[in-house]
User: Fold this.
Amino acid sequence: MDLKGKCVLLGVTGGIAAYKMANVASALRKLGADVEVIMTKNATQFITPITFETLTGHKCMVDTFDRDFKFEVTHISLAKKADVILVAPATANVIANMAHGIADDMLTTTVLAAKCPKLVSPAMNTGMLENPITQDNIATLERYGFTVIPSESGVLACKDVGSGRLPKEDVLIEYILHTIARPKDLAGVRVTVTAGPTQEALDPVRYLTNHSTGKMGYALARAAAMRGADVTLIHGETALPPVKFTTDVPVTTAQDLYEAVTGRFDTTDVLIMAAAVADYRPVTVASDKIKKKDGDLSIPVERTPDILGTIGPQKTHQFLCGFSMETKDLVENSSAKLAKKNLDMVVANNLKVAGAGFGVDTNVVTFITPDGTRELPLMSKADVADAILDEILKPFLLLFPCKHDADGTGAGVTADGGADVCFPAFLEVAVFLQARFHGLHAAGLRLAGGNEHQPILDVIPVGQTVGDVLAHADGQAAAVFFAHFQLAVDYFQG
Ligand code: CTP
Assistant:
């Protein structure tokens, strides 16, 4: 994931954490961003503009009336150029000014003029932060559409212990990436990802597990979140940091995972089972440590629930993607899992292939779907994650560019899960989407009406939903609907 072609404007204000922004500017440049920096006068007491100029290759703006400028009206030009603005550290004073439209320096003037997304990272003494005046100002910024990055707790520069610390640089960068790195082509799609190993206890000291580190599942959760999906990450014990912008659900055993997955299955659109689930667990869990004795020990084990095997046959609108790790007969074994568990896709990899499998940052996978197999080359797990999402959500990728379009030129899926159809060529596609991802009885399919796709317009009149129609459909109407549905399927598969 990178920021090539994006302009990030950093607003640095007068707090001790200002020095950390040099690392942020440098990391953003490494990600390919064009970085501009505006400092308040107070910020220059903590770090010099030359630092930012050296790191970004641009003049660091401080004074609104600086004559040594490169743009016509600098604050307006920067406001237009920026794809995102991050004000960090944001002092109580600058937050108060921004909340009340007071534009009395280069930074606050630019922020007021800018229409791009704005992120604010408050950093100050706990007393100042907790003061209801500051809290009100923060709430006001949020009301005006700013994203406020929660400050962290710890020992502050003033030696107080409490909240008010600027988050680590990588957190700030993750917010910027989440805001602008990827189009939000999965907005509104509820994705559940499972990751990591399960642990099946034998006694209070020992358990059965496997070598999974969770890297593939975490990469999937991050990629889906970056693309705007509503992501739940259910994971076993891993050493990985939590994935931002996801709902984090830690579990231990296969039974826990089964309950976590099935408990939210109705509200899941896409389930990706990347977890390495133990197939067996000890029949009994000793309450005390098992002491060694002379001779060998046999441990009776029993089957754990097969999660995909159970929910596959029960799926309604959900897309189910399983993983399959094999050491031989990759395609044959994985295709059998696709059929047996009623899956839409299996991502298969061979543990014995270099660069694939546990612990590494790369993978070599084969996609197996009811339509056939596709081998991918050696890729980073981050790229594999995006390729998997592209494959799963092809229909969404095609349609989301015209999301919410109501002017007769496009079609898309609306926030309520319905399909907005304005352009006849997309009609079947929208019908497909609604039926495939939101169920036939989901929110309305709204037709603009008046186009040459008369057969289906006759079946689904303006203002009615697919669900309404099918509930009362006679055989012929249903046949027309399914013919169009098939057209859409062919469209994507062809
Ligand atoms: N899986 C599951 N529940 C289990 C075991 C596996 O839902 N108890 C899921 C995995 O998360 C994976 C898929 O099923 O997405 C295939 O898992 P895998 O272990 O490769 O296959 P199994 O069906 O367990 O068969 P085998 O171990 O014999 O290869």
In short: Residues 254, 273, 275, 277, 279, 304, 306-308, 322-325, 337 surround cytidine-5'-triphosphate (CB under 6 Å). The radius of gyration is 27 Å. Confidence is low (pLDDT under 50) at residues 396-426, 436-463. The CA atoms of residues 59 and 68 lie 9 Å apart.
